[in-house]
TrEMBL record:
Coiled-coil annotated spans: none
This protein's name: Large ribosomal subunit protein bL21
Assembly: Part of the 50S ribosomal subunit. Contacts protein L20.
Gene assigned in the entry: rplU
A Pfam family the protein falls into: Ribosomal_L21p
Amino acid sequence: MFAVIKTGGKQYRVAANDVITVDKIEAEAGASVTFPVLMLGGESVVVGAPLVDGAAVTAEVVEQGRGDKVIAFKKRRRQNSRRKRGFRAELTTVRITEIRGA
């Protein structure tokens, strides 16, 4: 059984015991979080409109961290104009513990 969940403006396909990295969630390591379910899959597919009623995905926060540095470099040729900015996204690693169906 798998589910499609929504968090941080993105959608993720998850199954039990999956470990995924998502945008930062305000929770301590070891805490439990619940995600809304957009779709349940398996033997029969249930698609929500927009959410599946009575379905939820529970996950445990493994760690809080930061992603790799992304460099945004802009240069205008022959203008002696350039700009360099760095960015590191704040990320949360979670382990999917349970998928409750409708």
